[in-house]
C-alpha cells in the first residue's frame, strides 16, 4: 500500500488510519537510511503575510515510534497546515508513504516509510506503476531491426527523458520511433506548405515526438475484405496498364534535424 502527494496534516492523518497503528514509522534519509521522524515549523515572509508550514526530517537521536504515537502528535496540530520534506536537491516535496520490511531468522518485520518525491521514485515506487524500464526495453528491441542515424538520435534523446506519460505512450501497441519520425515528416510537410525548403528546429521535432507518443491516436486498421470467388468458366483477360510515377516532395527523404 502506498499513499502519494500528501500535503496537509489532515491528509496525512487520513492516510495513516489505513495502516496498522502498531507499525513503527521511519523517515528515509538518502545518506543514512531509515531514521526516526521529526518535524519543525518553518515560515516565509510574503507580500500578503507570513506563510508557515511543517517540514518533516530525519532525526538521529529520537527513538523510533509507532504510527499511533505519530497520530497523537498530529492531533495537536492544525489539520489544514501544510507539510513537506526536503529532497536531496534541497527542494520541498509533499510526503509519500510506503511499507518496507525485512525477514530475519524466519520472522518478518515491517515499518511505514515517509519519503519525498525523489526518494519515492528511486526506491519505493511499485514496479507496475513505473513504465520506464519496459519502455526502454521496447525501444531497444526496435533498434535491433530499425537502424538509421535519425532513429538512433531520437532513441538517445528518449533514453534521457523522465516523463512517465511519455514512457506510457511508448508502450502503446503500434507506436515506434520509426512511426514517430513518419509523424514528424507529415508535420514538417504541413509546416513547409508550398515552400520548397523550410528550417525545422530540433526542439520542434522533439515536441512533435512527445505529441506522437503521448496524445496522437494511431489510425484504426480497416478490416480486410475477403476476395470474392469467381466461377472458373468466367475467366476474362486482364488488361495491363502502365502508369507513370511522378516524383514529388513526398518521395524525398526528409532530414528532420536539418533543412526540409
What does the secondary structure layout of this molecule look like, with pairings?
Layout: E1 3-6, H1 9-16, E2 24-29, E3 33-46, E4 49-59, E5 65-66, H2 67-74, E6 82-86, E7 92-93, E8 95-104, E9 107-115, H3 117-124, H4 132-145, H5 149-159, H6 164-170, H7 177-192, H8 202-214
Parallel strand pairs: 2-9, 4-6
Antiparallel strand pairs: 1-8, 2-3, 2-5, 3-4, 6-7, 8-9
Helix pairs in contact: 4-5, 4-6, 6-8, 7-8
Shape call = elongated
Q: Helix segment count?
A: 8
Q: Can you give the mean pLDDT?
A: 84
Q: Which ranges are low-confidence, i.e. pLDDT below 50, for 5 or more consecutive residues?
A: 235-254
Q: What percentage of amino acids are in beta strands?
A: 15-25%
The count of DSSP E runs of length 2 or more, i.e. the number of strands, is 9
What percent of the residues sit in helical stretches (DSSP H or I)? 25-40%
Structural class: alpha+beta
SSE order in H/E notation? EHEEEEHEEEEHHHHHH
Largest β sheet strand count, sense and barrel closure: 9 strands, mixed
Radius of gyration: 29 Å
From the N-terminal CA to the C-terminal CA, the straight-line distance is: 51 Å
Amino acid at each position: 500500500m502506498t499513499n502519494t502527494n500528501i500535503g496537509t496534516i489532515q491528509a496525512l492523518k487520513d492516510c495513516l488510519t489505513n495502516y496498522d497503528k502498531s507499525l513503527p514509522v521511519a523517515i528515509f534519509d538518502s545518506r543514512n537510511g531509515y531514521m526516526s521522524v521529526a518535524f519543525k515549523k518553518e515560515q516565509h515572509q510574503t507580500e500578503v503575510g507570513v506563510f508557515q508550514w511543517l517540514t518533516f526530517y530525519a532525526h538521529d537521536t529520537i527513538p523510533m515510534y509507532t504510527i499511533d504515537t505519530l497520530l497523537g502528535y498530529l492531533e495537536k496540530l492544525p489539520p489544514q497546515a501544510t507539510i513537506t520534506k526536503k529532497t536531496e536537491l534541497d527542494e520541498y516535496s509533499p510526503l509519500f508513504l510506503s511499507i518496507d520490511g525485512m525477514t530475519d531468522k524466519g520472522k518478518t518485520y515491517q515499518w511505514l516509510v515517509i519519503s519525498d518525491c525523489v526518494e519515492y521514485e528511486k526506491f519505493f515506487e511499485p514496479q507496475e506503476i513505473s513504465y520506464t524500464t519496459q519502455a526502454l526495453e521496447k525501444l531497444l528491441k526496435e533498434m535491433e531491426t530499425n537502424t538509421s542515424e535519425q532513429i538512433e538520435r531520437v532513441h538517445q534523446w528518449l533514453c534521457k527523458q523522465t516523463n512517465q506519460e511519455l514512457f506510457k505512450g511508448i508502450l502503446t501497441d503500434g507506436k515506434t520511433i520509426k512511426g514517430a519520425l513518419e509523424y514528424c515528416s507529415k508535420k514538417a510537410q504541413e509546416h513547409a506548405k508550398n515552400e520548397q525548403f523550410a528550417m525545422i528546429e530540433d526542439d520542434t521535432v522533439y515536441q512533435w515526438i512527445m505529441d506522437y507518443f503521448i496524445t496522437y491516436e494511431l489510425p484504426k486498421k480497416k478490416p480486410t475484405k475477403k476476395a470474392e470467388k469467381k466461377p472458373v468458366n468466367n475467366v476474362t483477360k486482364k488488361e495491363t496498364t502502365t502508369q507513370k510515377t511522378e516524383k514529388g516532395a513526398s518521395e524525398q527523404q526528409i532530414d528532420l534535424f536539418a533543412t526540409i
